[in-house]
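Q&A FORM
Asked by: J.P.
Topic: structure of Cytochrome c family protein

PROVIDED:
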Amino acid sequence: MFDTMTITKVGGALCAALLVFLLGSWAAEELYDIENHSEDHVSGYRVAVPEAGAEEVVEEETVPFEEVYAAADAGAGERLWRQCSACHALEDGRNGVGPYLAGVVDRPVASAAGFNYSDALASLGGEWTPEAISGFIENPREYAPGTAMSYGGMGDIEDRANLIAFLATQ
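REPLIED BY: S.T.
REPLY: Here is the structure written out as tokens.
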């Protein structure tokens, strides 16, 4: 069983495996070499770091919602409506998890017939003006603390304006 030919084959297989591992190690080192071998070769990207003590104040340019709403696209808002349609309906009187939104623009807050509003919205008062709707759907929990609406909010002002423009057509 252990004749010279078998021992030679096993030794050759071990040498071949060692050679494969050595060649693989060499190839990997050449591909992923992180050491710089010359002065003019630099790896990575240059990152500008501000000097200590020099703070730059960046002011965000805010566009009033009225201007964005004036240029809103109801067609784009219809595509955004799909997110809302999981809980709300556009048919008058058809409540779901949330109240129906037919005619919601300029309607009094918490006035959808047959819907049981949370205390947070019932005590809010006022009307659902485009600005009020925008504030609410931007961050419902901040606008009306204690609201039952579990939506996380819509951060983009153009998206909110487009959605409200679509709701205004309903």
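FOLLOW-UP: Residues 4-31 form the longest helix (28 residues).
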